[in-house]
Amino acid sequence: MTIPAQSKSAVLTKEAAPGEVLLKVSGLQKHFPIRSGLLKRQTGSVKAVDGIDFDVRSGETLGVVGESGCGKSTMGRLITRLLEPTGGTVEFEGRDITHLGVRGMRPMRRDVQMIFQDPYSSLNPRHTVGGIISAPFKLQGVTPEGGIKKEVQRLLSVVGLNPEHYNRYPHEFSGGQRQRIGIARALALNPKLVVADEPVSALDVSIQAQVVNLLDDLQQELGLTYVIIAHDLSVIRHVSDRIAVMYLGKIVELADRKSLYAAPMHPYTKALMSAVPVPDPKRRGMKSERILLKGDVPSPISPPSGCRFHTRCWKATEVCKTQEPVLVELKPGQQVACHHPENAPDQAPGEAVLPEARESIEVVTIGETVTAEAPAASEAAEEPAVAEAAEAAETSEASEASEAATASEASSEATSGEGESGPDGTVQESTDK
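Given the sequence above, the corresponding structure tokens read:
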């Protein structure tokens, strides 16, 4: 089979300068139909992504966080056009790519790549590592300098693998090594936009820092733009310039890194931030409050009316049940969709908090400092411990003395001939004893 080369006429618009909008998403939706019955009629739909708006500037890193099932991975597949959107538009470098066909998307695949979450299912087990990483060159008709094999071996060394692994198969690698292979494949054609879906979740903690630093170095060298999806808020804080918080198919807050972590506005963001551990030995033993959200995340098949977070929010009022908040900019560079935001003026003052909202969370205080009575209590506890140790020592001495007396008695009986001789010539004790 001959792989067609890329046509010269299939060229996108001019490259976006650093700081200009590279990707623009408006009202993006993805509803998966639910069919049942003999005729497979649609009875409902799963609203995985239900109207999100954001943009990504050239050279920046946008982090996306949220609970499992909020639509992060689906959003990543939509902007790379691996899934067909139900509604909304996706513009890349000023060109609408929302409904491009296979032929129209082929030249754009060079500029937009994706690192998949599962390193086990994203690699073909029948192909070698060299064949997997060289596939983008063959599909796009690109021949790098020095040949494809030399370039693939260079990419393997860049992501921390041995170039001699060129002829090995995916089953011969660990999960972290397979993820590195996926990263090398995504970076093969020097793309402009890379969507990374949990790129370090399958790696050990010691390897995560290496991969994150690798992505940072490649971004500076190649001018890459990242959309990184992750659950680890510490990783997102380290690599992202701006962060989008998603909840049940919606973006509830979008802000730069410093503003979001210093003063989160949405109650859901505040609950997420309270669960982030602070790796500072100086703060060990200090009090901190953690907000525990009660109940499960509502089903995306029938999301709550109004604000989708009002069923688990401690600030929910009647307006939250009836009116859906709009994502608006309350502070420079910080957008939030909430009627009663934190660290900002109330958008619906005078509303009474719902009775069920007071029981929607539980605040737990962790890391309480040790009181002054603790040393006295410890000293009081040491006294019975010392008494028990002395008593145990006396008991052990008594037992040793009794064992010594028994042993001497047995030896005297053996020498006096009170035992009986067995068939093997050994002396056996009598049954009377």
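Residues 1-13, 369-390, 404-433 have pLDDT under 50 and may be disordered. Try to locate this feature in the token string yourself.
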